[in-house]
Amino acid sequence: MPEAKEKILQIRDLDITFRTTAGPVHAIRGVNIDLYKGETVAIVGESGSGKSVTMKAAMGILASNATVTNGSIEYTYRNDGGNMETVDILKKDKKWIRRNVNGKRIAMVFQDPMTSLDPTMSIGKQIMEGMIWHYKTPKAEAWKRSVELLKEVGIEDAEKRMKNYPHQLSGGMRQRVVIAIALSCNPELLICDEPTTALDVTIQAKIIELIRKVQKERGISVIYITHDLGVVAKVADYVNVMYAGKIVEKGLINDIFYDPRHPYTWGLLSAMPDLETDDERLYTIPGSPPNLLHEKPGDAFAPRNKYALVLDDKADPPMFRISDTHYAATWLLDPRAPKVEMPEELKTRLERMKKEAEKYGSEL
Ligand SMILES: Nc1ncnc2c1ncn2[C@@H]1O[C@H](COP(=O)(O)OP(=O)(O)OP(=O)(O)O)[C@@H](O)[C@H]1O
């Protein structure tokens, strides 16, 4: 972690509602996220928990039926004049965001490279496009830089590959190209939305390794959106666990993996495959996430939570402080609550993970 921490993104009290024919969907509820230069923040949670919507808001690319009803998304960056500037993305229009943020200072890597690449355009052209549009880079220069980028992301025969079309590449190579495109304008922040979900397991590890490498070499910040805690364990400095549009637990990677406090985090960790558990015995969190069309009072996780208290049906828990880095929104942390520990099986599993990490000399 860098010594003097420079904050580059600060999301505060973000509330987003979608207009739908069935009524308003309150998809994001009071989200706060901080991101510092060079760090990796993960947002983890089941499908529909609000991870992508939060990041789309940060990139100013929300769907047209979305309304931000509260909050701010402050982004601090070095402007074209070389000075540091802080803007609230929510107060900027689409044109400004397209010119100054999207693909330039903040770039995204999506789950499926096939949908983020244009099948009708050579990959060389697709990498050059951003440089030419954002920086008016001359074509010959953009070509040269694109070849270098392809090499940087580990593509051999880069000159030759420039002329290829996406369908001529394997899935792993396509995702490398997507990463090259994302890096083409020297972004300060990379948002990776399930960047490995569509890939084979062996390729997954290589893409994660690649993202780590470019992050380190370039000193950029990364936000990982994923439902896979295995990926989180490998990449993140800081973790936000999301449920039903709200962050329910946040902490440093070791806080979340070795001292989780929210029963939802317990569930996610118990459901994480590891070497010792076979698929048939793997835990799944009972029930399914709530329908956000019908907001109910109380804690949205209560119906799936075997540790729920009577109070959970009445009031949404606030964020309780566990340490300066670790917070969780569960009434179990209220001083009046009965003492409840994480399931014994999970405790054993986390201890095993800790021992393995110590053996291999990694943080996790
Ligand atoms: N354009 C939209 N109109 C209506 N509801 C939407 C729209 N986009 C997202 N939502 C709703 O917002 C909620 C959060 O969705 P989001 O895509 O952020 O979830 P997610 O955690 O990223 O899930 P996944 O892992 O499946 O991508 C969901 O309930 C989803 O149905």
Automatic annotation (TrEMBL):
PANTHER family given in the database record: DIPEPTIDE TRANSPORT ATP-BINDING PROTEIN DPPD, OLIGOPEPTIDE TRANSPORT ATP-BINDING PROTEIN APPD
Origin superkingdom: Bacteria
Segments forming domain ABC transporter: 11-269
UniProt record similarity statement: Belongs to the ABC transporter superfamily.
Provenance organism: Coprococcus intestinihominis
Stored Pfam families: ABC_tran (PF00005), oligo_HPY (PF08352)
Name of the protein described by the UniProt record: ABC transporter ATP-binding protein
SUPFAM superfamilies: P-loop containing nucleoside triphosphate hydrolases (SSF52540)
Keywords: ATP-binding, Cell membrane, Membrane, Nucleotide-binding, Transport
A single GO molecular function term of this UniProt record: ATP binding
